[in-house]
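As a warm-up, study this chain.
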Amino acid sequence: MCTATSRRLTLRLDSFPHLNTIRHYLEGIRICFFLAVVGCGTKTPETGLTPGLEEGPLIELHKQISPAVVTIFSLNNQGQRVGLGSGFFISPDGVIATNNHVIEDAKKLKARSSNGSFFDIANVISTSPDADLALLKVDAIDVSYLELGESEAVSPGTKVVVLGSPEGLEQSISDGIISANRKEKESNKRILQFTAPVSPGSSGSPMLTLDGKVIGIVVAIQRSGQLLNWAIPVEYLKQLREAPPRASQFSMSDWEILRDDSEFSEVTSNWYALLDNLEDDEISELSDVVLSYSFGRQPELLPLLKSMSKKYRHNKLALLLYGLALRENGLLENAIDTFTEYVELDGNSGYGQYLLGELLRQRFINENESNPIGSRAYLVEAGDRLRDAVTSDPGLGAAWTELGLVYLEQEKYRPAMNAFRKSYECEDEYLRQNEETVRKLQQHDPDLKPDIRIYESYLFYGRSAEGAKDYKAAYNSYIQALSMPSADSRAYYRLAWLYEHLENYEAAGEIIIKGLIKYPQDPGLLQRAVFVSLWMNNPELARIYQRRLFSVDPESARKFESFILDTEMLLQHPHRY
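Now compare it with the structure written out below.
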């Protein structure tokens, strides 16, 4: 079994033919793989196996082996956790053993030790999908580790313990016995059956004898039975340890995917250009940071990026990454200062001007309510920066979008329409020229919406056209937006508002109903539904939509009460008004 975020795998009987002898017992049973890691008696680099473990109490054994056992976190491109398992150190230089299925879908990996400290997984040394094992490497020295024992001669009845993270409960210990050491003569494959309780999250946990030596790696449980658990014999781990190492999971090949990602286009293009101008140590250090940033984007990278931006002041890439990390972590003023320095270093960078303009517009938004007059200067400066950006790089769709938003805020509706038109033209051209790259990105992230920027440009274009009183252009833009894969409730809302503005309430109502069929709890659509019902002198229908609105936005729903009462009074006593 796996954690809720880990995918289930089935242990096939034909993978372990020896189980055919008990097919009547296992027939039809699906055995779900869960996170597992091999262990061994706790050793320190100086002293080896800690004395006093022989037949010692479990409490003492737990104290001795827990420093070598870790929890493994699998993360996606956004740094969000998508899986959890267990693992353990098998050497003092930071090699961790775990299950292959724990890591196979991860974009980034972290490990947490018993004292709460985190390790970044620097490399995936080797994997064996057939044995469901993997070896990882962290940048650490002199760590406590476990000793690998022997499992070939282990006998049923041998007492064993398991230490791992069942259901995410880290450093949990359980005990039991070996029920059977099964072997198929033809395939020569072995599997250990044991009774120590385990749960989802235990995958990768070491199974040890009472002398503290690892004899198996927990891999599966059988839900239909009681205490029917399975472990991979430690011999398969030893074979993997002796196999030639594989390339890093986060290697330079990942740049083929990241190269044309619109958010990192400047980063990756600068990367290739800078390689020829850097020393080997710079290339190594910067590549580690760039890949960690791209796959993790964690706040803990900020101090490192700040240090590197000062260390490599001639390096635009280091400065750019630092600014992006500040931006993503909401440190607006620091990000503005950094990108100002970046633009001074490379005045021809359209991407840098775009980022600086975007942040200046955000500063305007933050201060506009408290300082509506003084904050306008930030909006003017943002417009200047964004015009420089599209002049330097006319194909930068994101810069055209930001420039359009500045014009929209300044009520310059025709220039805004032109900017948003340029935006969706640039983004559409980008998608057509990079179909293969987009396909790869979608394989890495199935939830990716490649056309989201085009969709939003159509929405903004429609709003600008409304301001310019070009209602036909606004209508066509919203209809185009509704036809796109990324379409959401906003397109229904804008089109309904347009019909409402033109006093075509029946058409507005039809659009709202279509939107609510797809998005029944959308507060914006429910608000529009109340308004349109009142415009059509139908307070009963307005009450229905108000009650639905109460369930998602009570404050907005209460504000409609007086409008509904006034409409009811008007209809009951029309001559009083």
